[in-house]
Amino acid sequence: MSSAQRRSLLFAGLILAGTAAMAQEGPAPAAPLPAPSLPGVVASGGPAVGPVDPQVVPGTGFSAPVEATAPAAPLAGGCTCGDRHGLSRWRWHRTQCKRHLQESVLGYPEEFNEWALGEAEYAHARTQAANGLAARMVFYHYDFVDGSSQLNLRGRDKLAMVATKLPTTFFPVVVERTPREPGLDAARKSTLLAELAQGSFPVPAERIVIGPSIAYGMTGFESLLIYGNQVQNLASGGAIGGGGATGFVGGGLGFTAGGLSGGAIGGLGGVR
After folding, report:
1. Each residue's pLDDT tens digit, 12-64
2. Rounded to an integer, what is the distance from CA 216 to the centroid of its chain?
3. Are both 202 and 237 inside the same structural domain?
4. Are 136 and 196 part of one and the same domain?
5. d(CA 46, CA 69)
6. How far apart are CA 205 and CA 259, in angstroms?
7. What's the sign of the alpha-carbon dihedral 14, 19, 25, 29?
8. Residue 144 backbone dihedrals phi, psi, to 5 degrees
9. Do the domain assignments include residue 272?
């Protein structure tokens, strides 16, 4: 079958489909004609029908204007397809009708609850800050003296910070568990409970728990790579990935703690 015959068959099919759709819908009912009435006659329960003579104001001889009755407005939320029929009505309803677009895509104005400016960003940032605070209230193995329940200097600094956060948060104080040394984690919990009991804010025993760390730390191999990159960047004056003294990828001079730029460091022959 040639392409011309295919186009003819397709065109004939579209015509038959449109004719069938118009036949199913049927002709639109004609609007009823208003009943004839005399000028000035008022229908029961409705406005004046037909032309109304202006009223004469007594003692002036002038006629007062009569306000015309406004036409009835279309129903709110109704379809805007009008008197279209057949394929034209279907196409208009799918692409241009306000009622259909509100139901499928746009929605209704009375159901639209707009967030305040920046509410989504603030909610995301608050969640991040809360998760970070919960992770900071975990006492790890390196916060204690190795193999004992006594806090080292780092652990005492963290304990002072945690004591200030306990009255304003509901996060628990977590002691990292010690599966290789049974009983050591319970002894460390008792040490923290005794230290916090000396403060002004009462801390119940249930507030301190034993469990795994909340945050996932780096492995030893990852820490060696990161430390090596930091040393290399410091030696090159802030370069990232080599190729000149730049503090950022693609540009920007780096500076040392003494205020010297990366170019000055490179001119010194890479003194370490």
Report:
1. 777 777 666 555 555 555 555 555 444 444 444 444 444 444 555 455 555 55
2. 27
3. no
4. yes
5. 11
6. 50
7. positive
8. -120, 160
9. no
The Cα-based distances of 218 to 71, 158, 221, 224 in angstroms read 76, 20, 8, 10
Name the domain count of the chain.
3
Asked if residue 118 lies in contact with residue 103, where contact means CB atoms within 8 angstroms, the answer is no
Q: How many other β-carbons are positioned within 10 Å of the β-carbon of residue 164? A: 10
> Are residues 128 and 104 both part of a single domain?
no
- Over residues 71-120, the pLDDT tens digits come to 444 444 456 666 776 777 766 666 777 777 777 777 788 777 777 888 88
Tokens coding 177: 């568990």
For residue 27, the tally of other CB atoms under 10 A from its CB is 7
Residue 161 to residues 1, 148, 182, 196, 200, Cα–Cα distance (Å): 85, 22, 28, 11, 14
Provide the β-strand partners of residue 206.
Answer: none
Task: Give CA–CA dist 93/84, Å, rounded.
Answer: 10
Q: How far apart are the first and last CA of the chain?
A: 83
Q: Among the listed ranges 164-178, 183-197, 257-271, which one has the minimum average pLDDT value?
A: 257-271
- What is the C-alpha to C-alpha distance for residues 189 and 210, in angstroms, rounded to an integer? 7
Q: Could you tell me if 206 and 229 lie in one domain?
A: no
Same domain, 135 and 183: yes
Residue span of the structural domain in which 109 resides: 83-113
State percent of the chain over pLDDT 70: 58
Q: Rounded to an integer, what distance in angstroms lies between the CA atom of residue 2 and that of residue 55? A: 78
Q: Which H/E stretch holds residue 16?
A: helix 3-25
